[in-house]
Specification:
The chain is of the alpha/beta class and about 475 residues long. Helices cover about 50% and strands about 10% of the residues. The strands form 5 sheets. Strands 11-10-12-14-13 form a 5-stranded mixed beta sheet, sandwiched between helices. Strand 2 and strand 3 form a beta hairpin.
């Protein structure tokens, strides 16, 4: 080691460098991976496992058992030679395990004797990783793998390349690979793994001059690889690489399409609640999470407005992705003029009750149930059910919800709200009653109920209210809905 040390270094520096180098383990795996390669690694596997377990003592017990079974032989040999003779374990116990094998499948096929070279080769990285993870004497690991693609088809080689990238993402492991396969030198980089690719050109000597002078070129892209290979007269490889890239893109696109279709089918099969808008969806999805129901088990989808007829309702359902007749459906409307009309149209003029109404089979409809405090507001203002304007934002406690709404509005919006009340009250109440509503102080429940949340802050309000306000009423409402959907 000292002959490679920089000249002029003090003894202390040389000692520190030597100590660091001694913490590094280098393992070389040749291109031809015979049984000796496996034997060496299996022996190391035993030594690594024995450092962290009682395996060494168990091996001693195994040898003692053999001695017990061969005691007659030992006694006869002792008499013959005049001294005690007995079977003894190897000084290095790992030698005993060099012939261990892996069995595959229910039939217990031997990896080393019955499986092909490709299957055997794919065991090597995992075996070596296990050894590194369990060896306590080293802190850093360097692998040198020659041609890991040998005996692998293209798909298996790509999977092996990804496996090497994942192994290399460990902070204590570095892997050097020589390969002729585009599955390796064009492999995609995985997260936290730094990959560098180089093309090595064969050099020749002509009259003492070496050509090319620099045999190593960095490959950063597919175009780089093609240029270098054309220059090296490897004309077939650029075509193969390009086609391989196109094939990968097509496969990736098909996989995305399949995933999207699968997700859509899962969404259609799940019990579904159709709500009117984005705010409703955000609020009820937050409620699902609070009560411990997965979004994969119950889907919440948007109608994008209140349908005015059965035909428009069907169009909105199809625009949102369609439906499967076997999946339970709930149509949940706002409790306002448009929502109540949609409920009556869908239910055949059924009366709106305290629970969802069954339309047919596993299809239900409902308008938002009015809270007790809003009922009191209706009584105080002498409002009848046809004049009610009750939306999902009102499912939170009105006092805190009104303050949150006020805090999100601009000064201009607050000022304009003093002269505006919802059309349900503006058109259907006597002037004196509507005037009292206009005079409500901003940030109070009456001001909040008679104006609602401005459209430009509805979604933000729904998200913040779900996080900060008492949501017990909206959760209770959702639980009641789920008793009809999750039968």
């Amino acid at each position: 080691m000292t002959e490679f040390m920089p000249r002029g270094w003090a003894a202390g520096k040389k000692m520190q460098l030597t100590k660091f180098i001694n913490q590094i383990d280098f393992t070389y795996i040749p291109a031809i991976k015979d049984t000796n390669v496996f034997g060496d690694l299996i022996q190391r596997m035993y030594n690594a496992a024995a450092q962290a377990s009682g395996l060494r003592s168990a091996t001693g017990s195994f040898v003692d058992a053999i001695r017990s079974q061969t005691s007659v032989l030992s006694d006869r040999l002792g008499v013959m030679f005049g001294s005690e003779t007995r079977l003894s374990a190897p000084t290095e116990m790992g030698v005993l395990f060099r012939s261990l094998d892996f069995s595959h499948g229910n039939e217990g096929h031997s990896l080393l004797r019955q499986k092909g070279d490709g299957i055997k080769a794919r065991h090597l990285p995992e075996l070596l990783r296990y050894i590194n993870q369990n060896e306590s004497s080293k802190n850093f690991f360097i692998w040198g793998f020659e041609e890991p693609e040998n005996s692998l088809d293209l798909g298996a080689a790509e999977a092996e390349a990804r496996n090497f990238s994942e192994i290399s993402s460990r902070s204590d492991t570095q892997v050097f690979i020589t390969s002729h396969s585009p599955a390796f030198y064009l492999a995609e980089q995985v997260k936290k793994c730094l990959v560098r690719r180089f093309f090595v050109t064969k050099q020749s000597s002509d009259g003492g001059a070496v050509s090319p002078a620099n045999a190593v070129s960095k490959i950063d892209s597919l175009d780089d690889a093609e240029t270098l290979m054309v220059g090296a007269s490897l004309l077939e490889l650029p075509f193969v690489i390009r086609k391989l890239g196109e094939l990968r893109d097509r496969v990736a696109e098909r996989e995305r399409q399949v995933s999207a279709i699968r997700a859509r089918l899962d969404d259609l099969v799940a019990p579904t609640i159709f709500v009117e808008g984005k705010t409703d969806k955000a609020m009820f999805e937050a409620s699902l999470s609070r009560i411990g129901v997965s979004s994969a088990d119950v889907s919440i989808r948007i109608l994008d407005g209140t349908p005015k007829s059965s035909g428009e309702l069907l169009s909105k359902i199809m625009a949102s992705g369609g439906y499967i007749s076997s999946a339970p459906l709930m149509f949940l409307f706002d409790n306002d003029v448009a929502g109540r009309q949609a409920f009556r149209s869908l239910s055949g003029n059924k009366a709106l009750g305290d629970s969802p109404s069954c339309i047919s089979g596993n299809v239900f409809a409902w308008a938002l149930p009015i809270s007790d405090e809003f009922n009191q507001f209706m009584t105080d203002r002498c409002l009848n059910p046809d004049q009610v304007f009750f939306v999902s934002e009102f499912l939170f406690g009105a006092e805190d919800a009104a303050k949150l709404c006020l805090s999100m509005m601009t000064a201009k919006q607050v000022d304009e709200s003093r002269a505006e009340i919802h059309d349900s009250y503006h058109r259907n109440l006597k002037q004196s009653a509507s005037q009292q509503m206009r005079e409500a102080i901003p940030g109070t429940p009456v001001w909040y109920w008679t104006r609602g949340v401005p459209d430009n802050i509805k979604v933000k309000f729904g998200v913040e209210a779900s996080k900060k306000l008492d949501a017990s009423y909206i959760d209770a409402t959702l639980r009641k809905i789920l008793t009809f959907l999750l039968l």
